[in-house]
Amino acid sequence: MDKAQVFSAIAAQISEHGMVFPTSVRLALRIRDMLADPDCHIDTVAKLVQAEPVLSARIVALANSVAYNPYGREIDDLRSAIARIGLSTVRTLAMAVVARQMAGNSIPADARELAEKLWAHSAHVAALARVLARRVTRLDPEAAMFAGIVHEVAGFYLLSRSPDYPELLNDDFAEWIEGGERMLGEPLLRVLNVPENIRLAVDTYWEGYLNMPPTSLGDTLLLAEELSPVPSPLHVRRDAGPAARGSAEIELLIGEQLLTEILEESRCEVDSLSEALRF
Rounded CA gap, 80 and 99, in Å? Predict the structure, then answer.
């Protein structure tokens, strides 16, 4: 089979049979689903989150990041950390565990290396998207961060299937960029019950067309993708370097304020956020 046929076969498997997740991922999904209940109590969340050490550590790290702790008052207990960042952000972090651990540990060394780079990219895009939503597009920054977290989920799943289809990593990723990512991503986001507004934002990212001035959640995600200094290792063509995804330049004016000024003022926030999201 050529790569397009492989992508189609994997997408059909996801749509027809769903997915089997590792134990840690199933727990993260359970936490995410519990947080969808508007009557969910913080003590209940804290008790369940304690069973997932990776998620617990990231919640505390994020609560102490510049974005959520601008006055430098550090905390070290889980309940206080959850109270500081809010339940919607805990839900985002639960999805981060799902995305990051989807590839698992039983993949070849080259795939693990790609997964590490892909997560560094995802974390930076998520951090940038949060800042851009707050400072540029005036949208919900937590929704923007959520979109950044899940926008490469198809890539992690691709890496998880590399033992079955090693040829997927043998060449460049032109076919992935041109349609494979969307082919796997659409059923994945549905199986993961990702909210529609986030799916639409990721669809804008796949489409690659950035409206100027940016106004939507999809524009926010795509702008963060373009501005990220950490590229996706799956968006590299053998003959052309990183794949272009639009015409935005760092010098573009956003209203009356220069985008570079916003990014410079937010550098500490972005660095702190992206570091807290890495695991």
Answer: 25
pTM of the model: 0.87
Residue type at 58?
R
**Distance, CA of 46 to CA of 81 (rounded, Å):** 9
Judge whether 19 and 191 are in contact, CB under 8 Å: yes
Residue type at 16 in one-letter notation:
E
Spatial contact of 188 and 14, defined as CB atoms under 8 Å apart: yes
Q: In this structure, what token pair is assigned to residue 6?
A: 């492989």
Q: Which residues pair with 241 in a beta bridge?
A: 237
**Are residues 82 and 135 in contact, defined by beta-carbon separation less than 8 angstroms?**
no
Beta-carbon contacts of 246 under 8 Å, excluding residues fewer than 6 positions away, are 208, 209, 210, 222, 226
Contact 177, 241 (CB under 8 A): no
What are the pLDDT digits (tens) for 164-212?
888 878 767 888 888 889 999 999 999 888 999 999 999 999 998 888 7
In tens, the pLDDT along 207-257 reads 988 887 789 999 999 999 988 889 999 886 555 544 444 334 545 556 555
